[in-house]
Amino acid sequence: MRVRAVGVDRREVSGVRFLWATVDPRAGRVAERGAFTAGEAPGAYPSALQVTALQVAGGETRRVWTQVTVVVEGNAQARPLASVRILPTPVTALQGQVVRLRALGFDDRGVALSGVSFSWGIGNTTLGVMDPSGLLRVTAPPGVYEKAVQVEARYQGKALLERARLQVIEVAPLQDVINAQILSNLVRLEPGGSLDFQVVALGGSVQYVSDVEASWQVAVEGAGSVNASGRLRAGLQPGVYTDAVRVDVTQRTGGQLLTDHAFATVIIVAPKPPAVLASVALTPKGVVLLPGQVFVFAARALDQSGREVAGAQFSWRVVDGAVGALTEQGAFTASQRPGVYPSALEVKVERNGEARFALADITIAGAVVQIQMSLSGVEVQPGQVLALSAVGLDENGVAIPGLLYQWEVGDPRAGTIDRLGHFTAGQIPGVYEGAVEVRVTQRLP
């Protein structure tokens, strides 16, 4: 994430430090310097991130902040690409023939997906010339070439590579033959599920034939039923039904009757058990806030397999009213009373008569009373560089977020230090008491 500060004259202001923070963790998370990682759940998240600009001038610290809306795009219901099929397979052609190839992408059920992009290629350029759209001109001599034709399918960020055999023949096949291929030849359905089959017919010249009649039937008992248009209704008993669906293709041409058939295997999978509310995931389980700070908690209802379930109702409450106030959507506003409040926030999730609970710890940081530096009394070599850090603690020993640290050297002979705490030792050996100082600036409510 990038941000810049501008003055009242709309010109960019230099010497400003920016600090990023996540307000709504459902949108994702952002590092202190602005590196953002989106969350998993698609949706719009208003005021999800906050960036604070800090400028130190004339001994004063000026602070300005703004919030950012995040939109996570996506479709959680879309099925991923699971397999690819090249048509025809194998690819059969004469030397010098031009063949138009086709490919289809299927999901895990065997249903053809729309919107899949394909990029074609040939494994060995001495075998032929292939353009990216699937038009192949064969130059290879007669023979069988394994995995010679390839296509890469891309769908929703996933890529699959499929290869097919190239068979170059010497004599053109007779035109009065027909070859049937069923799409898809392997399908997965739950008991009682349905799917529409398709069939393509290829003539002797490996061209698609459209003037054909198709007759469908179930060849294996228990696989289900199929109607005249190829719509399958799966049976009720889970199992693997090999070559369960048969299609017979007929073409009437020149007074002749050309026929062929093809099979498809049906896998009926046991239905998944109904989702039951098993737990609730509350994010985060603990948080440190400044007085008056607003923070949005997120909760997800999970089933027995740890997957998120829909249709759950969420209700929020603060267990200890002294810790702050809470809206129905989980937006929490910290009170002005610093302290450590274990199990101070509760979310209740209800679904189909079941209820689950989760608790979060809340710590409200107070005024800084102590500063701890990472190194003290250390021995260094002339010119050596050390990375120093510091943390400000309140009266409860809580590390306070959002502090501004200013580094200085008490004795210039000891060395130098930059604004990030990188100390470079000087060239004059000696013992330097209080050589490094750090000042902390805290904005109190």
Describe the structure.
It is built from no helices and 40 strands. With 445 residues, the protein is mostly beta strands. The chain has five domains: 17-72, no CATH class; 78-172, Immunoglobulin-like, CATH 2.60.40.1080; 175-271, Immunoglobulin-like (Sandwich); 279-364, Immunoglobulins (Immunoglobulin-like), CATH 2.60.40; 370-441, Immunoglobulin-like (Sandwich), CATH 2.60.40. A four-stranded mixed β-sheet has the order 7-14-13-10, with no helix packed on it. The model has no long low-confidence stretch (mean pLDDT 85).
Layout of strands and helices, then pairs:
Elements (H helix, E strand, L loop, with lengths): L16 E6 L5 E3 L5 E3 L4 E15 L2 E13 L10 E5 L3 E4 L3 E3 L1 E5 L10 E6 L5 E3 L4 E4 L4 E13 L2 E12 L8 E6 L2 E4 L4 E3 L1 E6 L4 E2 L3 E6 L5 E3 L4 E4 L4 E15 L2 E13 L10 E5 L2 E4 L4 E3 L1 E5 L10 E6 L5 E3 L4 E4 L4 E13 L2 E11 L5 E4 L11 E3 L2 E4 L10 E6 L5 E3 L4 E4 L10 E6 L4
Parallel strand pairs: 7-14, 16-24, 26-33
Antiparallel strand pairs: 1-4, 2-3, 4-5, 6-9, 8-12, 10-13, 11-12, 13-14, 15-18, 17-22, 18-19, 20-23, 21-22, 23-24, 25-28, 27-31, 29-32, 30-31, 32-33, 34-36, 35-39, 37-40, 38-39
